[in-house]
Amino acid sequence: MAVEEAVGGYAGGVYLRSRTDGLLRLAALDGLPGRLFRPWWRMHVNRPYPVAEAYRSGQAVHLPDAESAMRRFPQLTAGLPFTFGSLYEPVTAGDERFGVLMVLRPATPGAAVESGDRERMRGVAARLAAELTALRASGDPVVWDGDPVRPEPVVPRGGAETAVDRLAQAVLSLDRQGRIRYANAAAAALPGTRGRPLLGEVLWEALPWLSHPAYEDHFRAVFMAPEPVYFVAREGDPPSGTWLSVGLHPGPDGVTVTLGSAGSDPYSSGPRGAGSPADRSSALYRPVALAIALTEAVTARQVSAVVTEELLPAFGGRQLAIYLLDERHLHLAWETGFPRGFLDRFDGVGLDVRLPGVETLTSGRPLFFESMEHLAAAYPGIPLDTHVGARAFLPLIASGRPVGSCILGFDTPRGFGAEERTVLTALAGLIAQALERARRYDSEAALARGLQSALLPHRLPVHEHVVTVGRYLPGTVGMDVGGDWYDVTETGPDTLALVIGDVQGHGVAAAATMGQLRSAVRAFALGGNAPEQVVRGTNRLLIDLDPGQIASCCYVELDRATGRARAVRAGHPQPLLRHPGGRTEVLNLRGGVVLGVDAAASYPVTEFVLEPGALLALYTDGLVEVPGTDIDAGVERLRVALAAARPVPLTETADRLASGAGTTGDRPDDIALLLAWRTGPAD
Q1: CA-based diameter of the chain, in Å?
Q2: Same domain? 508 vs 654
Q3: How many CB atoms lie within 10 A of CB 520?
Q4: Is residue 142 part of a domain?
Q5: Does some domain include residue 279?
Q6: Consecutive sets of 10 residues in the chain, 683 residues long: mean pLDDT of each?
Q7: Is residue 288 included in any domain, yes or no?
């Protein structure tokens, strides 16, 4: 692709949306062998990878080297632990995101991406978006569900072929897709070639003994990074077979491969059955990759989703079911790939029932069935969803405690080698630990949410001429309760007190402080105090109750009959006011310092009028803050959303604003929102 050459890259690709919601697929790949990178052909948009991040955020992601990739995207470096740099540019047209443009290039440690390269990436992405927009306008769907298109590499000319043919060592030249473009005479005599021509074939297909998973990382490394790679490979099955020394020498347009005798078995002195380091590292790769993904999963649902996205593709599985143990019964917690309703019959089965999913847990041993006939023979009469396929039943046991069982389904009969059984058993242990941790999180989070709900008003009072609606959304990161709150209090026959606040921090202490502040504000307001006195008294109380704790607050005293409002702000975001005609502005309330800092602080009052049909929005910073962006941009997004909203019904407006404006799928902070709509009467 032209963009690779423009920014000094050696490989690139384009991810596009697929018909599956939340899934991107690699539509084009240039400069890399497709088979070696098949695990990255599919990319879920909620995964912690740079492609998904660029798509979700609509912002470019630049990773100059492996260190920056490790800091920001550890799962990427777990799967591709090589020295390379990469650029990711979202392909967008207006509000529509088609996909992501990706370029891989040599690492530039500590160097920022040059502005010219950023502009060239944006330019190519813009041209691609324009072409996709035109394609969609012509009636063609702009989605991708097939394998990536891989352009044929340019075959370099020349080469001292005669001189190389004299060497006893095999020498081959590969293009960027791994296809053999030159092989000397010694290469033609390599074991496994059977004298057939090698040109045009993929190296590891022409020499099948190089296709062992133990060697895949070596080939990935040489196509991703500029350094040579050396390893030994066995031609043939152990204990027989010839050991060969393999050298991989990368260049901008391909790789030179050298193969020569490595002498006797270089690992014969090791422990019996230890195998080569490559064999051992290959066996460790999948547990390590899954373990990293599981550390980021918090809830049981997230753990199950990680298993679906990481484990199934790695082993070629199509079905997955996870059952969790509760009161000596197994309950279905997650399923994918099975016919609708098929697994319902097994939900809630006791541990005394003879089923493979039960016996794998009670015995602690995994069960592998290479065909459905084997499964039916072992468990006569067991209901089957298909007559063709294979099944693996894995016990989920964490630190000796039974957690549940996991079922993997395959569409075709298959064997399970000793190494694969070992890896699957190890992965089951990791999954069990993650599920045990997630179940504790779910129960503790439910308790925390209950505490949060108890501290917020269960319902707001109904008032003549003014409709109020409040919303609270907890953060999605962590289980701690937050310190955001809102309240509405009748302070007189025609007056209301509208208040919103945010206690710094999270956890039980912050929630307790929030409850105390809410009670204090209500008490000061009901005592007939003016707005500035309410906030000043609350400030002094916070300093007495919890020195060092701070909170922001916005307090509005509203006359329901006249719409006259008197507001005080203590370090809190400015409210928004939507006028009856739809014009929406950010109010400019004078303010004082946050609560809890200065016992002598004063809080000036700002007056404004809430006309009939006008809508006032009070909110906490969690609604407008997006990590990595300016808070003013979030306030502007909320202002635009409020301007486009219709006050009736106010509950729907509150729901849309709370769940959509300035938020992403992951909320690091909780959100509070209070809307007040004046319905009349006019003065």
Answers
A1: 104
A2: yes
A3: 19
A4: no
A5: no
A6: 72 91 90 80 88 92 86 77 88 91 87 83 92 88 88 60 72 88 82 73 85 78 82 70 84 86 52 40 55 74 82 82 91 89 90 92 91 91 88 89 92 84 84 84 70 72 86 66 85 92 76 84 92 95 86 95 95 95 93 92 95 94 77 89 85 86 55 89 44
A7: no
